[in-house]
Amino acid sequence: xxxxxxxxxxxxxxxxxxxxxxxxxAVVTPIVQASTFVxxxxxxxxxxxxxxxxxxxxxxxxxxxxxxEGAEAGYAFPTGLSAAATVLELLDAGAHVVxxxxxxxxxxxxxxxxxxxxxxxxxxxxDFSDTDAVRAAVTDKTAMLWYETPxxxxxxxxxxxxxSQIGRxxxxxxxxxxxxxxxxxxxxxxxxxxxxxxxxTKFLCxxxxxxxxxxxxAPHVSTEITERLGFLQNSVGAVLSPPDCAQLLRSVxxxxxxxxxxxxxxxxxxEHFAENRARFGxxxxxxxxxxxxxxxxIAARQMHDFGAIVTIEVxxxxxxxxxxxxxxxxxxxxxxxxxxxxxxxxxxSLTHKAVPEEQRAAAGISDGMIxxxxxIENVTDLIADLEEAFR
Length: 391
Ligand SMILES: *Cc1c(COP(=O)(O)O)cnc(C)c1O
Description:
CATH topology of the largest domain: Aspartate Aminotransferase, domain 2
CATH architecture of the largest domain: 3-Layer(aba) Sandwich
Mean pLDDT: 96
Structural class: alpha/beta
Distance between the termini: 53 Å
CATH superfamily of the largest domain: Type I PLP-dependent aspartate aminotransferase-like (Major domain)
Number of strands: 12
Strand order of the largest sheet: 1-7-6-5-4-2-3
Number of helices: 15
Strand content: 5-15%
Number of domains: 2
Bound molecules: pyridoxal-5'-phosphate
Order of helices and strands: HHEHEHEHEHEHEEHHHHEHEHEEHEH
Radius of gyration: 21 Å
Low-confidence stretches: none
């Protein structure tokens, strides 16, 4: 583990794995664009051969984020989905995977419409907030358990320590998609998860101006698996480009201050919805920080704060949702989340369109559901914008 791990998170976000450039003294990690590196002799080099297998800018951001997650190793990919796809390459053809029912739509599509066909995966979907249901779904053929918490968009809370225990008892690898929290709010590996995956496009980048993915492997996982993921990153070939690595490294430095504001703004928005539920015509207000949220106690135990995502359900279905989405203005109607600007979107027609209708219904994703990613603008302005949208 990096020596900077002795420092607090905020300090590590700025300094982990980063030293002044030995050549120039540059305080910021240089972008090394070279695709190839000169060899000093046969079998002799300065740590690099060819940029897909290793690049110093990428190594810095990989080691920095691994440090923040308390991981043994981290690997950076050009998107969150390519990180997920490469982690799934750890499995053999025909593997049984137990996955959370309301997964991010793209990961659901990757499992059901790609890997079931190309790798013969057998995938069982189950509500991971029900630990007993997960245990019942696991068989002696189960190779991986895959979940998100809070989940997307229903914000179900999964007990990470309990799922990790199921993984240990059965020998299945446990993978937690930590995108909604970032390592500042939640460290699944410390709670026993084996692998953490991020769409770094979201909070880690935080400015809606790039795409990236990260996968981190826990220190308790065998060296063979940790190294195999590095082998797969190089063999499959999805690597984050050096300029994107530098931009991600810069973004991570402000992660703690951004997340603090995201969380306090989201809490204020959720409380405003909860207090004005009848006037706004809401069937449901979901935020893990609200005391009546079904997973509130587990969230309070395993999260440092409750995140930036608030999900509501308007009565009046898609027509009413459309009205609200069109009337909000600071909350821009767009998919994605985790940027400094507030976004609002409609899961049933956008992020979760790829999920079959009956599975959407089973996961509780209704046509009146709206997901907000609360940004770091002034909270009074944000609430005034919602007042206007619901007027
Ligand atoms: C966005 C997202 C992904 C996919 O990441 P991309 O960077 O868009 O490829 C995976 N999981 C979650 C939870 C996400 O929000």
